[in-house]
Design brief:
Blueprint (H helix, E strand, L loop, with lengths): L9 H10 L7 H21 L9 E5 L5 E3 H16 L3 E6 L6 E2 L3 H4 L3 E9 L10 E9 L10 H4 L6 E9 L3 E7 L2 E8 L4 E6 L10 E3 L10 H12 L9 E2 L5 H11 L2 E4 L12 H14 L3 E3 L19 E4 L1 H12 L1
Parallel strand pairs: 3-5, 11-12, 11-13
Antiparallel strand pairs: 1-2, 3-4, 5-6, 6-7, 7-8, 8-9, 9-10, 13-15, 14-15
The structure holds 2,5-anhydro-1,6-di-O-phosphono-D-glucitol and manganese (II) ion (2 copies).
């Protein structure tokens, strides 16, 4: 097999990026390397999940009242461990932990960043061999360096993210991350165990032909959301239709497709869940940041997601994200 020696690895790419920034300390590239390392460890377990005793429920229920899968716990420990042992992260917040964790060793206390993550997204799909993922957002801490990270470091609006990304454990494993400078995607080359730059400078097409929503909840959505879904279904070829509906139930995969090919992903409020299901800090903010940097849009139906001031770690939010023109049509429907 021919190997393209000019393909950059994740480490090479991030180090090159930060060489161009005056006064850059390299801490962010260190943090991304730590995340890459944890992702590779999780990937190994996901790949052999059917063979080892890691499928199924762990037996506990998380702070959100959901069954915790063994792989959720494993992934959480890998990401938390890699970030704690690295030199860039002062603390973490995770969908799987009730409280944020401010690391107490000296190196971590003197680190610049904190990280919020959903260690395993789409965990309901683990047992049936469907793509799952990890989502993360990185913020510069607002508390003083040298002290333990505090709650205010974690409750920042998404606009303050310095980087955000996700990993899809799919037909191939990919890590995609965004900084304000752009969005880049890396595919794991299993033969050398490195993420290699495969999707440089990702742009979200202005329009797509796919909408992604849980149709089972249709009659629990607000009538304006239903009106937009109805429009999606009636698109004529002159209007860019027909649209296809695609919904895997792992938002990492559903939003990844919308980012690369164009499309819209929605998890609206329902009658029984007036704040929707997805978590603002671990799921909505990172994707809102990535898709906006790529040229798309993200909102909670009334407000730009990135401007929402979080009130608590595990708060939920309705979420709409995707191609710019599709989002604008949705916004018009919701405003009518
Ligand atoms: P998690 O596995 O981290 O709890 O997240 C699952 C989320 C998201 O990935 C997906 O889009 C959504 O839940 C699916 O929910 P529904 O089954 O209600 O559509
Ligand atoms: Mn999730
Ligand atoms: Mn999860």
């Amino acid at each position: 097999m021919l190997v393209n020696r000019r393909v950059l690895t994740l480490d090479e790419f991030t180090i090159q990026q930060y060489r161009n920034i005056p006064n850059a300390t390299g801490e962010l590239s260190g943090l991304l390397r730590d995340i890459g390392l944890a992702a590779k460890r999780v990937n190994v377990e996901v790949n052999k999940a059917g063979l080892v005793d890691i499928l199924g429920d762990e037996g506990s229920v998380n702070v959100q009242g959901e069954d915790v899968k063994k792989l959720d716990v494993f992934a959480n420990n890998q990401f938390m461990g890699a970030l704690q042992h690295g030199i860039s992260c002062a603390g973490i917040g995770s969908e799987e932990l009730d409280h944020y964790v401010g690391f107490h060793d000296e190196v971590s206390k003197n680190s610049k960043y904190i990280c919020l993550f959903d260690p395993l997204d789409g965990s309901g799909n683990i047992d049936v061999n469907v793509s799952i993922g990890t989502i993360f957002g990185v913020y510069r801490r607002v508390s003083e360096k040298g002290s333990k990270a505090r709650e205010e470091d974690f409750l920042q609006p998404g606009i303050n993210q310095v980087a955000a990304g996700y990993i899809v454990y799919g037909s191939s494993t990919m890590l995609v991350y965004a900084t304000r400078r752009g969005v880049n995607g890396f595919t794991l080359d299993p033969s050398i165990g490195e993420f290699c730059l495969s999707h440089p400078n990702i742009k979200c097409p202005d329009e797509g032909r796919t909408y992604s929503v849980n149709h089972g909840n249709f009659f629990r959505y607000d009538e304006k959301v239903r009106a937009y879904i109805d429009r999606c279904q009636r698109k004529t070829p002159q209007e860019g239709g027909p649209y296809s509906q695609r919904y895997i139930g792992s938002m990492v995969s559903d939003v990844h497709r919308s980012l690369i090919k164009g499309g819209i992903f929605m998890y609206p409020a329902t009658i029984d869940r007036p704040n929707g299901k997805l978590r603002l800090l671990y799921e909505c903010n990172p994707f809102a940041f990535i898709v906006e940097v790529a040229g798309g849009k993200a909102s909670n139906g009334t407000q730009r997601i990135l401007e929402v001031q979080p009130g608590s770690l595990h708060q939920r939010s309705p979420f709409f994200v995707g191609s710019r023109k599709m989002m604008e049509e949705l916004e018009r429907c919701l405003a009518d």
